[in-house]
Description:
Residues 77-406 form the Mitochondrial resolvase Ydc2 catalytic domain. The chain is α/β, with parallel strands linked by helices. The protein is 45% helix and 10% strand.
Amino acid sequence: MRLTSALFSPPQRDWLRSLTAQHLRRISHSIGTKISGTKSDVIRRINLGLDACEYKRAGLPNPNDPTAPVTPREMRILSIDMGVQNLAYAHFVIPPDWRKTIDDPNRPRAILTAWRKIAVQDIIHLKNGTEPHRPSKSALKENRLTVSDEKEMPSINPAVYAEYAYNLVSTLLDKHNPTHVLIERQRLRNGGGPNVFEWVLRVGMFESMIYSALYTLQRERGLNVFVDAIDPARVVSTVQEKQADALGEELKQQVASGGTGINNLNTKRLRVDLVGRWLGTWAEKAQLATTSISPYESNVELPDPSGKSGADPDFRPEDESDKYFKLIVSEEDQALRGFALHYLEEWQRNLLRRRPDPNPANRLEKKYNVTAKMHSESDIRKLDDLADCLVQGLTWLDWHIMRDKILRGGVDALTWHNIAIPNTKKLRKLRK
């Protein structure tokens, strides 16, 4: 039998055609697909996105063999926020999801096992397991060319960046063995001027070399790693919708209508605040710290200097009402937990600086000095790079969890996700 293109086309979901453009846009936001184009284009991309779902849960039939259920798998997600002097990455482990009903709230949480920001010239320290440090001036003269030397040169040296890219990729693959690698997609930005900045070209070149190193190592080692380029604008759009409560009424309306009323500074703050809320919720549930989202009312109580905690590492929420319980910081890495608490503390301080409270009694007070000792050389002053890699990874995971819900429940999954769908009975008939 001759195979035609129709046999390779994704299955069509007729109930999508009965939705309005606004509803289709909301679905596209929820699963991470583009929202531009005609209605047919949006529906086609939604179908392609659903068929490319990477989140597998028990009880969902195999599309190629409906009689064979899908076996859940562990996901190890490496999320990279691109940069040269401020590259950041986070690694999550997602335990297998054995739930068989869509309304079961006890889905496994992402376990954060690595999270750091690093300059490319310090990548070699990842292999050694040491903290990155700046070489002395004498060492710079004796060693080979570095990025800091290269700033004085009129051109970019690809050989230096190629070595950095290979060291970064090979080290992260060896250390974390990820099943999924997410890389922030770069774009040529000129800041409104006629020219493109040199640092933009540097990061773009480094991004291309990372992809090349990933492809080469996959072929050489026979690895099966899913690599995806993540559009940061799409992540921001999803975050804005999820964080609508933190926006003013005017900005809420602009986000709901697809407007661009939020500037770059505010989107950075949204992502930093979102990670702060995630970590604050985790710290409270793990009994490592007590926090309040309001910057005027709380102190951050850091853990006991002994490092002991009575928290249950396998704790699960009773329901999904706590939307900020997104991750668990690995119990096996106390230094990572200290780093997460340090971020939480700095985030609270930034809130106070942003909106100063006239009452001195409400100012943040540090209870212990543990994290300062553990990470005396950690650069956590610039929170947005650290936040971006976390938000990117967990937003991508949310997209694919939502795709899994739609594959299971169709229009019913959308209703559960608080997307208002009219004529529900009619749509259910179309789904059948």
